[in-house]
Amino acid sequence: MNEQRYATRIRQVLNQGLHDIPPTATRRLEAARHLALARQKQCLPELSLAGAGSWLNRQLGHSGIDLARIKPFLAIIALLAGMWLSFYWHSIQYVSEIEAVDVALLADDLPPEAFLDQEFIEWLKDDSSVE
Fold it and tell me: 45 lies in a domain?
């Protein structure tokens, strides 16, 4: 309330001094005002992902939900979805690597019993350390 009274008082003082301005200065001020309005930066529309943000804002605005309060939750959900997709993609990659090893083992000429032999496993470890 105090700010409104202060603003009203400033407006009254400015309006009182308005009559003391010479007409030439008034025309120059009006021209400067029009020039400033012409050069004023135009408000650009918000960038959004395929318009989903503005659509969501309109939908939530009609329902009375405050978008500013929901944005952190939406960010957390997006983060969790990204983490899940990353985990899923890495698990797919891991399974495909294991699959490649299994295919190589099954296509080999060695019988499966050779892989159960401890001496053969030791031989493989010694052979791989040379490389």
Answer: no
- Tell me which of 10-14, 28-32, 46-50, 108-112 is least confident: 46-50
Three-state SS string over 29-44 comes to HHHHHHHHHHHCCCCC
What value does the mean pLDDT take over residues 102-111?
72
Does a structural domain hold residue 47?
no
Q: Residue 131 and residue 69: Cα distance in Å, rounded? A: 59
* Secondary structure (3-state) at 111: coil
User: What domain range includes position 101?
Assistant: 70-131
Q: Is residue 39 part of a domain?
A: no
Please state the domain count of the chain.
1
Per-residue pLDDT, averaged over 68-73, amounts to 80
Q: Could you tell me how far CA 61 lies from the centroid of its own chain? A: 21
